[in-house]
Amino acid sequence: MPRFYPLPSLALVLLLPINTGWAAEAPAERRTASYAMAAQPLASALAQFARQNGLQLSFDAALAQGRMAPALNGQLSESDALQRLLQGSGLGWSLTPERTLLLYPVTQDGALNLAPSTVNANHYVERADGPVQGYRATRSATGTKTDTALRDIPQSIQVVSRQVMEDQQSNSLGEVLANVSSVQRGNTHGGSSEAFVIRGFKANTYAIDGMAMNPLVSRPEALRDLANVERVEVLKGPASVLYGRGNPGGLINLVTRQPSFEPEARVKAQVGSYDFYRLEADASNALNADKTLAGRLTMATQTDRGFRDTFRDSKRTYVSPTLRWAPSDATRVDAGLDFINQTSPFDRGLLPQNGKINMPADRFLHEPWSRDKADKFSAWYKAEHDVNDWLTLRQMTRWDQSHKDRYVVDLRGIGSDGRTLARRATDGNERISTLDAQFEAIARFDTGGIQHTALAGIEYIDGRRVVASDRASLASIDIYEPVYGALPGPFRFNEKSKYNLESYSFYLQDQIDLSSQWKLLLGARYDDTRQRNTTTNSDYEVTRTDLDPSKVSPRAGLVYQPTDWLALYTSYSTSFTPQNDIQRSGSVLDPEEGTQYEVGAKFDLIPDRLSATLAVFEITRENVAAPDPADDNYSVQTGEQRVRGIELDVSGTPLPGWEIIGNISALQAKVTQDTVIEEGNRLEGVPIMSGSLWSSYQLQEGPLAGLGFGTGVTAVGERQGNIENTYDVGGYARVDASVFYDIDENVRVSLNGRNLFDRKYIEIVAGTDGNYAGDPAELVATVSAKF
User: Fold this and answer.
1) 135-163: burial string, b at 16+ Cβ within 10 Å, e else
2) For residues 439 and 382, what is the distance between their CA atoms, to the nearest angstrom?
3) Kind of pairing, strands 391-414 and 518-536?
4) CA 174 to CA 28: how far, in whole Å?
């Protein structure tokens, strides 16, 4: 039966899958495809035609109502196929340069007739690397490395748009990812970085514009500023086929803003509770008269004392210049730099006692001089060239270099009196450099009427990491009545480690449109890793470890789309992570492996306005290192962990001005095999139930037009503090809200309140040296302007 399009006025925009990637477009009369379409209502025929040819579709729904389209078979050009579909309908068509198909009524003599309807061509067209209109995204490149409709990808992917970040005034990645199901904040390593737990497993790093960060680190080197981030995407489950070594829970990808050939600028100033101050600016424009070269400059600075009495402010500065060169329609080159400088108090958080954490949230167990400094510099470029209308070549290179300096207090253990905490001082530094180069080819072709988008890639990674530390004695502290002022004793050499990594990878992927309803995704990757580790201990004994793992990681998925508003999918994906642990035989353990089975549905609760993803999955992490029961100086490879779960994510615009983003998940995350850990123990920091909901509404007309309100709740269940399950933390529900007003189309003022009811809770639980209380009630006032 015909599909009804509940849009209130003139034109309907259907965002439909694009199979053509970045290729230069051939004229409609030269583009051909094989069709096997049955006679059907015109609206559904046009929707099927648009999906097959990668078109956007814009027309008044009333134009197609009651009209039928004939069957369409054979190899035809776009122009001929459209003429056949519209034969006798009284409708004409045109195709914009952005490949949006416009329909309009014509008179018997072929003249345009605008009396019944007006065509609106000034509408938004989403790209996978561009902004999202509102809260609901429809496209992504994170799951395929090609610009693909989310409904065509057989894996759960969540996208948090820039508008969500602005409405919530999010300034950290943790605040953004609270909008995504099955994601919890992980160990901050003393407050100097952000890590996450995705679907029960730790995600130690993330990707930027599709390039994963340094594989040698156990956490990001510095806190990533969000000033130039356009969208944050989370690919759920293993992602090794496209991104190499990684954890099985999922991958976070930050999509950054691109230079614009039209002038634009933004500035934002914020002030908030606990001496929070932030200023960011962003400007972009063409740099030459021909508009073939454009630039963007983004800068941000932030100072935050925080609610904990740490005696030292957190400070961060971020600068990012970028360029885009487009000498022709077939060639695009993007390049940029990123610089981060940060200083933060080093703080391991709160300690558990007797199975619980009962310390005051602001208790500080370190010293005023305990601090962490980090600098990170990155340079990158991406070049793409459309050889012809079916082949695109892409080359990407990224170079990262970072330096971390730690002059910190380490917490050891509480004495028999239950209050005296042993401590020591560490003076350490870490230097990391990584070169990542990727070469890819994307081909679009037909075989027997079946459409393919094939990706072939080669990746080379050269990484270096050097970590050194000196140690000194330090006086203990009373955890109930702390007295500060202790200074470290003489420092002695503790340890120095060097890690050298070379990795060669080759990957293939094919997105196959078997028909308008069935889509198949197949992929595989081969990784050959060569890692050389050298460690010198405090007795100057040198230990060398050589790792040479190689691994093939397959992936497969199938999508069935019985209607325009529903996509059912099933998938199988894998991951691997090399290990450093040694067996008694002297050999290194095999890499950890992750396997995920997932089934789900992506559907529109309100067509083209409110979308949802429902996923059911099982992830098994195998080859986990476990202590050797005969000699705990060595390891055995019997560990296994498993997570089973169900998730629901929703985002969109139910009504004009009303935006929603929400999620809920239920996870069973436990140890299934181990030599020391009891089987059945729950995994660290993973709640059984969690979710969040944020909704905002802005008045669209009347004297108060431009005034908006937002409110949200984040709920997290009880969690185990460590994998031994020796302590746990309770669940919590936190309420946030905002009020904002658009003075005009360029200036907004807003006030955001977080944890409005001043709930006391533990937000991060990550072992005995990584437990952090959530912030108490706080306010942030913002003024933003664009030009």
Assistant:
1) bbbbbbbbbbbbbbbbbbbbbbbbbbbbb
2) 10
3) unpaired
4) 46
Residue 210 tokens read as 């599709």
- Among residues 691, 754, 695, 717, the alpha carbon closest in space to that of 179 is found at 691
Residues of the chain where predicted confidence (pLDDT) is lower than 50: 1-29, 108-123
pLDDT value at residue 107: 52
pLDDT tens for 264-277 read: 999 999 999 999 99
How far lies 543's CA from each of 502, 534, 567, 780, in Å?
20, 6, 53, 51
Alpha-carbon span 684 to 214, nearest angstrom: 24
Q: State the Cα–Cα distance between residues 174 and 486, nearest whole angstrom.
A: 33
Q: What is the total residue count of the chain?
A: 787
In sequence order, the β-bridge partners of residue 437 are 397, 460
Phi, psi values for residue 657, rounded to 5°:
90, -15
Contact 179, 161 (CB under 8 A): no
Residue 144 and residue 639: Cα distance in Å, rounded?
A: 31
- At residue 28, the pLDDT reads 47
Q: Among residues 286, 304, 299, which one has the least CA distance to residue 338?
A: 299
Task: Yes or no: say if 231 and 160 are a contact pair by the CB < 8 Å rule.
Answer: yes
The amino acid at 84: R
Reduce the DSSP state of residue 286 to 3 states and report it.
Answer: strand
- Classified as helix, coil or strand, 518 is strand
Residue 62 has what pLDDT? Answer: 66
Count of Cβ atoms closer than 10 Å to residue 614 Cβ: 16
CA separation, residue 13 to residues 25, 30, 86, 100, 213 (Å): 21, 25, 19, 9, 37
320 by Cβ neighbours in 10 Å (0-12 / 13-18 / 19+) ranks as buried
- Tokens in use for 613? 């993803």
Q: How far apart are CA 268 and CA 36, in angstroms?
A: 53
* Contact between 360 and 402 (Cβ < 8 Å): no
Structure tokens that stand for 618 in this block: 């099982």
Rounded Cα distance, 70 and 170, in Å = 51
Closest CA relative to residue 249, chosen from 168, 179, 184, 331: 184
Q: Name the amino acid, one letter, at 755.
A: N
User: DSSP of 187-226, one letter per residue?
Assistant: --TTTT---EEETTEEE---EETTEE--TT-SS-SSPPP-
Q: Which amino acid is at 746?
A: N
Eight-state DSSP code of residue 586: S
Question: 197: Cβ–Cβ under 8 A, 6 or more apart, which residues?
Answer: 183, 184, 185, 186, 203, 249, 684, 685, 686
Q: Please answer whether residues 188 and 218 qualify as being in contact, where contact means their C-beta atoms are separated by less than 8 angstroms.
A: no
Q: What is the pLDDT of residue 97?
A: 57
Q: Do 551 and 575 meet the contact criterion of CB atoms below 8 Å apart? A: no
Q: Whole-angstrom Cα distance, residue 453 to residue 511?
A: 5
The region, left, alpha or beta by phi > 0 then psi within -120 to 50, assigned to residue 391 is beta
DSSP label at 630?
T
- Would you give the end-to-end CA distance of the chain in angstroms? 47
Residue ranges and CATH numbers for the domains of the chain are 12-105 (3.55.50.30), 264-786 (2.40.170.20)
Q: What is the 3-state secondary structure (H, E, C) of 89-108?
A: CCEEEEECCCCEEEEEEECC
CA trace torsion 122, 697, 759, 186 (10° rounding): -20
With b for 16 or more beta-carbon neighbours within 10 A and e for fewer, the 117-129 pattern comes to: bebeeeeebbebb
- Please give the sequence-ordered ranges of beta strands (E in DSSP) within 415-491, or none if there are none: 420-447, 450-478
Q: Could you count the other beta carbons within 10 Å of the beta carbon of residue 530?
A: 14
Kindly give, in sequence order, each residue whose CB lies less than 8 Å from that of residue 12, ignoring residues fewer than 6 positions away: 5, 57, 58, 59, 60, 61, 608
CA distance linking residue 655 with residue 696, whole number of Å: 11
Query: What phi, psi does 159 have (nearest 5°)?
Result: -125, 130
Indicate the burial class of 508 (C-beta count within 10 angstroms; 0-12, 13-18, 19 or more): middle
Q: Which two tokens stand for residue 603?
A: 């559907």
DSSP 319: E
- 3-state SS, residue 39: coil
